[in-house]
Design a protein that fits this description.
This protein is elongated. It is built from 6 helices and 11 strands. The protein is an alpha+beta fold. Helix content is 22%, strand content 20%. It starts with 25 loop residues before the first helix and ends in a 5-residue tail after the last helix.
């Protein structure tokens, strides 16, 4: 789709061809991992607001000042910019908070739109479901159909800056459906369901600094200012702290494995 909204259909290849998806989405993977944990150790909908170091343990409190948990070590498995909003007692070294705020959260300022249909009807016309646009609001779209359910789905990433999207939820949804109709035809106008997920305005994902995405992929990794905090009792385990693939799922796995190794090494009786 060019700058004027004219649609050009070309013979080409599907960029998502061969991609693998988890049935039920990433939530299914998370739910499976959580199911392995003792239920007595799980607390949901208890956001932490304050961490207090008391001798050999750290106590976590919610916004109402109620104690949520106490542990020898705390791993902050959330974006460092979000972690910077927590209250730390005693205060962290002077460079710690500025370093947290300086680490961009990959794609935190982005939004994604998904439309679900009875069938992937575009395939009847020999279309891949892939599209690129210089007109918008979506700049790239892909076939996200679930082969098991038989439903059709197209998702796309928004190219409209976050500050323009603010307060315009329905207008953005309408514009996305109009764009899909231009590109894939009139059958795209009335989906079974349509969902706009805007991460820029999720408190657990982004801060205002994330509204303008970085020009390129940041060089991630754990800064020295965030290493060894509270004598190693306070640790970071999010994808943004991974040396490789930071910001991606692979980075999350890397950070989790590294953090686990550090904890196990300290607990091991053979640790030097």
């Amino acid at each position: 789709e060019d700058e004027q909204g004219e649609v050009l259909r070309n013979q080409g290849w599907s960029s998502m061809q061969g991609s693998l998806r988890i049935q039920g989405g990433m939530a299914a993977l998370i739910d499976s991992l959580v199911a392995l944990l003792p239920t007595k150790n799980l607390q949901f909908n208890r956001p932490i607001a304050r961490l207090v170091r008391t001798g050999k343990s750290i106590e976590a409190f919610d916004a109402q000042g109620e104690l949520v948990a106490s542990a020898r070590k705390v791993v902050l498995a959330l974006p460092p910019r979000i972690a910077s909003k927590l209250t730390f007692e005693p205060t962290l070294p002077e460079a710690a908070i500025p370093n947290m705020k300086s680490i961009s959260t990959w794609m935190a300022g982005h939004a994604k739109f998904v439309a679900v249909y009875e069938t992937p009807f575009w395939r009847d016309e020999g279309l891949s479901g892939d599209a690129m646009s210089r007109h918008g609001p979506m700049i790239e779209m892909h076939d996200a159909s679930d082969p098991g359910a038989g439903l059709g789905a197209i998702f796309g990433f928004l190219g409209v800056p976050a500050h323009f999207r603010a307060g315009q939820h329905q207008a953005v949804v309408d514009a996305c459906l109009a764009q899909l109709t231009r590109i894939f035809g009139s059958r795209a106008q009335n989906p079974l369901a349509a969902k706009l997920q805007d991460w820029a305005f999720e408190d657990e994902t982004a801060i205002e600094a994330d509204y303008v995405p970085p020009a390129g992929h940041p060089h991630y990794g754990l800064p020295s200012a965030l290493s060894g905090l509270w004598d190693g009792q306070l640790m970071f385990g999010s994808t943004e702290t991974a040396n490789q693939f930071g910001g991606f799922l692979e980075g999350a796995l890397e950070a989790a494995e590294y953090t686990a190794e550090q904890i196990i090494a300290v607990r091991s009786p053979t640790a030097g």
